[in-house]
Amino acid sequence: xxxxxxxxxxxxxxxxxxxxxxxxxxxxxxxxxxxxxxxxxxxxxxxxxxxxxxxxxxxxxxxxxxxxxxxxxxxxxxxxxxxxxxxxxxxxxxxxxxxxxxxxxxxxxxxxxxxxxxxxxxxxxxxxxxxxxxxxxxxxxxxxxxxxxxxxxxxxxxxxxxxxxxxxxxxxxxxxxxxxxxxxxxxxxxxxxxxxxxxxxxxxxxxxxxxxxxxxxxxxxxxxxxxxxxxxxxxxxxxxxxxxxxxxxxxxxx
Length: 254
Ligand SMILES: NC(=O)c1ccc[n+]([C@@H]2O[C@H](COP(=O)([O-])OP(=O)(O)OC[C@H]3O[C@@H](n4cnc5c(N)ncnc54)[C@H](O)[C@@H]3O)[C@@H](O)[C@H]2O)c1
Prior knowledge:
Elements: E1 9-13, H1 18-29, E2 33-38, H2 41-50, E3 56-60, H3 66-80, E4 85-88, H4 103-125, E5 134-138, H5 151-171, E6 176-182, H6 188-196, H7 200-212, H8 222-233, E7 244-247
Parallel strand pairs: 1-2, 1-4, 2-3, 4-5, 5-6, 6-7
Nicotinamide-adenine-dinucleotide binds next to helix 1, strand 2 and helix 6.
């Protein structure tokens, strides 16, 4: 299927990360004008270099800051007038059993992964009203089933799935709102999770589970997740809204 985002404007959060970089690149290739935001200035600058000549701009914005998100929304309104595609992709993970999870860790994860999606959707969604726009939230298989040592992350991603469905109702019938629930992706994130675990046995068990938990017996490549984001962003997905779509190599089928 030919995907076209020609003439569309898009904002991607977590743009400097494994999935975000590929999303920015592919959205540009599909014809969109893209603003990518992230808190990682160095990787953002490297991405800007790589996408030189494309219709891409990087901005240093934290989805955890209401002020920065409000400023971004104002900037997007000034530059684009209206927004067609919002890919809420920024997130963090920590590996810790629930009994050892501190208030600070819980708050940080929920603030970025869930409230960040809310802030972006509220402040940028205003500029999508009246368009045939698409909001895509990157949730997780961890938003559908449990994972050991990941209670805060699972809670945040389960929240994103439910938030997606509620927003699909609030934004209907103009703007479509969907969630992608990936399996484990070959990016920095699963490595960060495993690194946090307390001992070598736990690290080895977690990694073996990541590799073997998918029916396809491998991790996903970012392009395989972005393929679904490109579809959902495009008019090809014109009758898809309120869905939480697994792109997880069969993880939750078991
Ligand atoms: N990698 C996996 O195994 C996996 C599995 C399921 C779902 N996901 C989801 O996919 C999405 C992309 O993850 P990834 O694998 O590319 O991870 P990643 O760590 O490579 O990228 C995440 C990006 O988010 C950015 N970020 C963190 N806090 C931010 C903030 N406050 N404001 C703006 N940006 C911020 C980081 O700097 C980073 O560039 C996330 O939502 C993640 O939860 C990942």
